[in-house]
Each structure stands twice: as C-alpha cells, then as structure tokens.
Amino acid sequence: MNIYTADPHFGHANILRLCDRPFADLDAMHSHYIETFREAVGPDDDLWILGDLAYGRSAARLSAITAIFDALPGRKHLVAGNHDGPRIRGLSWTSVHELVEIRDGDQLLVLCHYPLLSWNRAQHGALHLFGHVHGDHRGYRGAVNVGLDVWDHRPVRLNEIRVRSESLAPNPVYG
C-alpha cells in the first residue's frame, strides 16, 4: 500500500510558528509525526514523502534527523523539495526523485514537491500530488496537496485523496 505526505520539516523550530502547528515544541512535533506515521504505515508499505523532510544543515541536526528517518516505517521514497539537500537525499531512501509518475492500483499519479498547473495525462484522470504550499491551500480538482498541515498532521491514502480531489474547485486549465 502507498501512503503519502509532505513537509514534515523535522528539526525546523520556526515551522511551529510559521504554520501554526499545534505542538508545544519540536520534540512534541517529532513524537507526534513518528507515532502517526507508525500507525498509518506498515513495514511492507511505501511511504512517499513529497519533499521537505527536514530543515537544517549542521552535523548535530543531521544526526538527529537521521535518527528520526530511521524511526519512520515502511519503504521510504523521497520526492525532493527545496529543503532536501545532498545530505537528506543521501539517507537510505528506497528511491529519490524530483518528479515521478507511479501507479497506485489503477490510478496514475504524478508526484512533485511543487504544485503543477498541468501534468502528464491530467485530462485522462491522472492525479497530481504535491506539497510545498503551507497554510490551508488544499489544491484543486485533480491536484491535491498532501502536506501535513492540510491533513490534520497525518499521512494519507489514495482513497482519501480521491474524495478530497472531488470536493475541490475545478482545475483552472482542465476544469
């Protein structure tokens, strides 16, 4: 099974204030995300993180981020974001991409950290999943933000994404 998320920003103290995240401190945020991911993702599942796993470049921060990464369940895939530098990309991911097309059952998905206005097979039912946009922007029909900030701070499955997609405003290009 595939599970999707974006923008955990592990190690990024200012994200608590910038995104009004409901945690007392980084330790509380880290603990919540690790626990929530473990509840949603089994050892044989694929966890797709659509960018911004972590923030910070110091050796001490990287050591802490590596410990968090190792605590996350499943086969971990990164669709790199603007904060995922060489050290983050160098963790023991199953795969690392800038943009990738995958199938989840019969559904074609185009995964990118950034929201796209148009993507391959959009007019034929392909869904685009993205992150990067914080706040309350959920996307539009066919293009769904899977960021933690718009999913009650938890990763999501395709069935939930499809329901949300249908509830969103029409795509400005394809309707």
From TrEMBL:
UniProt key word Metal-binding: yes
Gene3D superfamilies linked to this entry: 3.60.21.10
PROSITE patterns assigned to the protein according to its UniProt record, in alphabetical order: UPF0054
Keywords: Metal-binding, Zinc
Keyword Metal-binding: yes
Record InterPro entries: Metallo-depent_PP-like, YbeY_CS
GO molecular function terms noted in the UniProt entry: metal ion binding
Entry protein name: Calcineurin-like phosphoesterase family protein
